[in-house]
Amino acid sequence: MGKLRFLIAIIVGKITAFLLDKIFKRGTNTPGIIMLKICPDALSRFIMPRNTICVTGTNGKTGTSNLLTHIIRNSGKTVVNNSKGSNMAPGLASALVTQCTLGGKVTADVAVLEVDERSSQYIYTEFTPKYILCTNLFRDSIMRNGHSGFIFDKINDYLDSKTTLVLNGNDGISGLLGESVCNRVFYSVNKTQRSTDTCADTVCDLIACPKCNHKLDYEFFHYNHIGVPKCSHCGFSMPESRFFASDVDFEKGTFVFNGDKGESLVLPFQKGNFFNVFNITGACAVCRLMGIDLDVIENSIEDLSSKTGRFQEKKYGGVEVVSMLSKNQNPISCSQSLKYLDSTDTEKDVVLLITDSNDKVHGHEDISWIYDTDFSPLNNETVKTVYVGGSRCYDVANCLEIKGIDTGKLVLFENYDELAQEVSKKSIVGRNVVVYFELYATSVVEKIKTAMSQKGDK
Questions:
Q1: Which pLDDT tens digit goes with each residue over 398-429?
Q2: What is the rounded CA–CA span in Å between residue 395 and residue 142?
Q3: Host domain of residue 428
Q4: Other CB atoms within 10 A of residue 394 CB
Q5: Do residues 146 and 270 share a domain?
Q6: Cβ distance 42 to 100 under 8 Å?
Q7: Of all residues in the chain, what percent carry a pLDDT higher than 90?
């Protein structure tokens, strides 16, 4: 009976995916939702490729999984990837059903699956990945995730000894996953010219030693709790990294990737986005473990924006508009995105669309996360105006005033259409417009760009 249900689920899933692609020209997790209703254990019935890679963590999952997919495909292998669906069970099922036989055998050489970190118990109990790459663990979506320690347990409790973990050696939280359970491989980033002796950010999620609970010391910080932790009381430190990034050049946007066999590559990263150095290094580590040649990796590394669409630059009549996804409910992602403002000397106006643009639909009632966000780059003298949009614009403005941001720069708009027109009207040739938007504000960004293009045409 189970086999029949699985067969029906695959047939219905394939038909649904085909129709959605033809009608809406995009993927959704709907096929997976239907499949799991017909056959709740469908994920466990797929015959997965020998090389199945799951990418999880608080920040960087999408960029890293898409980059991995890009490199592996360039190596000549076929890849199934859930970039068109969600990163929970229905999204994975939706991706797998598009590249499987009626018997459930996934026909791709490799599966690269982005996995929601809170969904570990629903994913890793269904199949065993060969590799799990965990980018990091931070506080995120407090009403859903509570605390990074809670998410750590969610992942750690469902790991299989057959899985190799590829872990961030600069993260004293996610770097402890799988101790005494899995084979673990670490990657890290060496000290840079912007590393600090003390935590320069609003939030540090790891201040006590995870082994003895005494105050934890750091050799240096990259950002937040990401750095080189060490305990002078019990001697705790992170294991040595087999793969690491060195010589990070923030001006050129390059760094050196160093492999475990003495090999090295000079690779580009997106200027102003230090996250990308970690994402690229982690992806390269997995590729080297798979035996992918250095020249394939070198020729494949591209600006992550070309794969994720989360960072875009375009000129409208002499005004460059930079749009950057800044995850709602995620103070670390938002803080790191804002640091882009310090990376350029060009005068700029900033648009903040960082609180939920569809409150009634998505129900993100908690906005406490904005008080964990480091907004100090808004005080950069190159930032001339800060537009704050949406029904929560007054809440954001209140937070900015408490944090010492110059209120003379603030312009508030509850109405997005009015905001778009004002940004376009007041834009100045030679001055950039930098738009930070949360996931559900993509349509608002398009309104701003449309208004800018109409002004440019005139």
A1: 999 999 999 999 999 999 999 999 999 999 99
A2: 18
A3: 310-457
A4: 12
A5: yes
A6: no
A7: 71
